[in-house]
Specification:
alpha/beta; 38% helix; single chain; 6 helices; 7 strands
Length: 178
């Protein structure tokens, strides 16, 4: 089983905490995680899985898999940890392919294609996460959406749209709220 976890590069702290927690909990159940190793939600999806020491994580890049084109550079250590923990780094792009903005939405079809289910954590109205959802729905995949306590914030407009369209929701309570 493989769950895709996607969301904003500029995520709220609440969303990052949720991502790491849900990825950890899913991984503890023997389910593998796939994401795009971008800043924000993607990074935390990989980190939650790595910290579980129970499952594997797969990163799908929108660049070549080499030191000269890897992006974003600040996630290089996460990249290395994925390899060290026998996960996988995947890219359809040849070595040396730079991080062109049009590569990233297109690579999302691979994330959804390999996933059994997709979780959207934080998505604005026009986001790569919603592109992933479109691919997932066209591929017959289940899509789950994080229902934040801040669902009316602009950064959750995509989540709100998906919920209004009938997507299954996931809620999270922080340790302070329990």
């Amino acid at each position: 089983m493989l769950f895709g976890i996607v969301g904003s590069r500029n995520a709220l702290k609440e969303s990052l905490e949720f991502t790491k927690k849900i990825s950890y909990e899913i991984s503890k159940r023997g389910i593998n995680i796939i994401s795009g190793l971008a800043r924000g939600i993607d990074k935390y999806a990989h980190l939650g899985c790595l910290e579980s020491n129970s499952s594997k994580t797969i990163a799908v890049l929108g660049t070549g898999i080499d030191d000269n084109s890897f992006y974003p550079v600040e996630n290089k250590r996460v990249f290395e940890r994925i390899i060290e923990n026998e996960g996988a780094i995947v890219s359809e792009y040849p070595l040396g392919t730079e991080p062109f903005s049009y590569n990233f939405p297109y690579r999302n079809r691979i994330i959804s294609g390999l996933s059994d289910k997709v979780i959207v954590v934080q998505a604005s109205k026009k986001s790569g996460s919603l592109i992933t959802v479109d691919y997932a729905l066209n591929q017959g995949k289940d899509v789950f959406v994080y229902k934040s306590k801040n669902i009316n914030f602009k950064c959750f407009e995509g989540n709100k749209i998906l919920i209004e369209q009938g997507a299954k929701t996931i809620k999270y309570k922080s340790e302070m709220e329990k």
